[in-house]
Amino acid sequence: MSPENLRYTKEHEWVRVEGDRGTIGITDYAQKQLGDVVFLELPEKGRAVKAGENFGTVESVKAVSELFCPVSGEVIDSNAALVRAPEAINTDPYGQGWMIVVKLGDPGQIAGLMDAKAYEALVASEGK
Amino acid sequence: MEASALRKTPLNAVHRELGAKMVPFGGWDMPVEYSGLIAEHLAVRSAAGLFDVSHMGQFDVEGAGALAFLQRVTSNNVAKLVDGQAQYSALPMPNGAPVDDVIVSRKAADRYLLVVNAGNIEKDFRWLTAQAPAACSLRNRSDEFGLIALQGPKAAEILQPLTPLDLSVLGYYRHAECTVGEWPTTVSRTGYTGEDGFEILIAADRVEALWRKLLEEGREKGLVPAGLGARDTLRLEARMCLYGNDMDETTTLIEAGLGWIVSLDEQKGDFLGRRVLEAQKKGGPPRKLAGFEMTGRGIARHGYPVSVRGQEAGAVTSGTYAPFLQKNIGLCYLPAEHTAVGTEFDVDIRGRKVPARVVPTPFYKRAK
Asked: pTM score, two decimals?
């Protein structure tokens, strides 16, 4: 089940909002679709990102997948430990698998993202 | 392509029951992985894996003219085979490039089996038919058989209790007709993983029972079902070519590094493509398939451009993270003068030039 306290995109990223900070990763469904993750590329701290824009790349043995930012803002943290050991995306997608923290430029964007229930419905429709 | 338009092997339902992730491959609905690609890859290197390769094709070539026909349409010397022996070979065109790569097995002096790639079954059959086989019959029997590959250092230990055939005397690229479990099969000591192992050919309606029996027998010895994903990374570590990626109708066998299956023996005589292949084997080809390791951060993938000293030089034909070696490796065509081990070049990874270096191959070789 997708955690209730997160918001989701149709490209299978999640964001956890705490105050003016949004922590971003990919969902359990996304990591299962990818398979064993072996490579991750993330932006440096300080980079400006825009909602819907590519912010990095995740690769499994077989597939390359672009990462899309759910929200606009400035990258204030980037998970360097995850870049060194990206398999945590498979084992703990909502915990150690976090990718970046963004200082939200437009908190109003959060309302446009899916809640857990809507995301589950999307996954169910893709699985068909 | 819609899943319903894809062809299915007799094990399709078994893969789904095992929870496999299914993907289209060469027109077939095939398992890419079960428990996870890396785990399956490592299981084959340390214990054993079971692969459904029933999608591959089988042709019988039989009759007094079978040997002469095969000598003319394949690149290797079929006359060197004895009964119960197989060889890796190819079906060259006059330009020296292969229609397909194949295994030729001799069952008797006038009876041979060709094993061909799944995606090329119809193409190969049309090609062979067009080469006017004389005094022999050519039959496509692909739909009659299932084929299971049991691969890994524990393969013999797993298979031996199920067959009266003494596996310790079955040499590499040798085959024998024998029962496995209660079913008549042909067991070959062949594979596509760089490990010891067997490929077991069996009637299509019995392949499911054999699959279940092997998994049950092997489970406690570490046998796992393994998908096409692991098959691809295993074969690449062992530097085995994949038709359609590393070679096709535009690359000669010599360029692909397959000069060892191009026979210039007197006994072989003339064959399709001989003129080009002989000239390239003796004088060297203009480009060669080189094995490389990424020295910068990034994974090379099929089709990524490569450049040597800023000059566009070719493209990656296969590239992956190599689970056993824990490196990013690949194959690409480079101008022959830039293929020496140690040569530095760049792979264009989505617009970024990432350094790579030519390395000796195979990338992985098992301890004998």
From this structure: 0.95
